[in-house]
Design a protein that fits this description.
By secondary structure, the protein is mostly helical. The protein is built from 10 helices and no strands. The radius of gyration is 18 Å and the shape is globular.
Length: about 260
């Protein structure tokens, strides 16, 4: 079965985008909260697997950890939850299909609520794994080290990795619409989850939850560093996800649609 054409992708993106833009606030908050704590499963799995593999395989453990993290993103997409940046593509397509700027308030509501509730959901659920003995000591050390590494990068590194991460996650939205069959969608999701964890790709919610969990586990990270990382990576995600990927793909689909009128 062949992939969908750009016109078909645009039409399906508009349909899904309309659903997302018109969600009642309770549904939006619920699905965003679920996405936030679902990401924690992937983060913790990464720490556990990497700590288990590192003593025997050294640096290969990072690949194993990334493979474990990918499952968390599959859970998120299969559950049809709202993750910031992943929900750039379809709502933007729907907004372009509407006349004027009528969809702008709905877009702002969607992205602001999603971001805030993703972080709240992930930060609260991460507290479960901060309890002493909840995860192995070796995994605790791995997760602390990852958090410290993320928080200590330069602003330019945060921004560059944010652009790459934003582009990757937004691309996933188009790939999911482009292919046919749930198996293909989940396989693509897993591949993107693996790449996101392996790097160099930073997604603000994933990175923020990584660092928050690291702080819970004792990583010496200042609130100022956490805030700076959040702001810069978010800006990178917007540039890469909205500017680089979403707008170009929406323009492609819109152009294909107009060429057949």
């Amino acid at each position: 079965m062949s992939p969908r054409t750009p016109e078909e992708i645009f039409e399906r993106s508009v349909e899904e985008g309309e659903r997302r833009l018109d969600q009642p606030i309770l549904e939006l908050v619920s699905t965003s909260f679920i996405a936030g704590f679902t990401i924690v499963f992937g983060v913790v799995a990464l720490g556990i697997v990497e700590a288990f593999v590192e003593p025997t395989l050294g640096h290969v453990a990072k690949v194993a950890g990334a493979l474990a993290f990918g499952v968390g993103l599959v859970f998120l997409v299969a559950g049809r939850t709202e993750l910031f940046n992943e929900n750039f593509a379809d709502p933007t397509a729907a907004a372009v299909a509407r006349s004027g700027f009528s969809a702008v308030p709905a877009l702002v509501r969607l992205w602001v609520v999603t971001f805030a509730v993703n972080v709240v959901g992930g930060s609260l659920f991460a507290l479960v794994f901060a309890v002493e003995g909840a995860i192995p000591p070796e995994s605790t050390e791995i997760l602390r080290t990852i958090a410290e590494d993320m928080a200590s990068r330069t602003p330019m590194a945060w921004f560059a990795r944010g652009i790459a991460g934003g582009a990757l996650v937004s691309l996933l939205s188009f790939l999911i619409v482009a292919v046919r069959g749930d198996g293909s969608k989940l396989s693509l999701t897993y591949a993107v989850g693996f790449m996101l964890a392996l790097g160099p790709f930073d997604h603000v919610v994933v990175s923020l939850i990584h660092v928050v969990l690291g702080i819970y586990l004792g990583a010496p990270i200042e609130v100022g560093s956490l805030g700076a990382m959040t702001a810069v990576v978010t800006a990178g995600n917007v540039v890469g996800g909205l500017g680089l990927v979403t707008l170009t793909h929406v323009t492609q689909g819109r152009g294909a649609e107009k060429s057949k009128e």
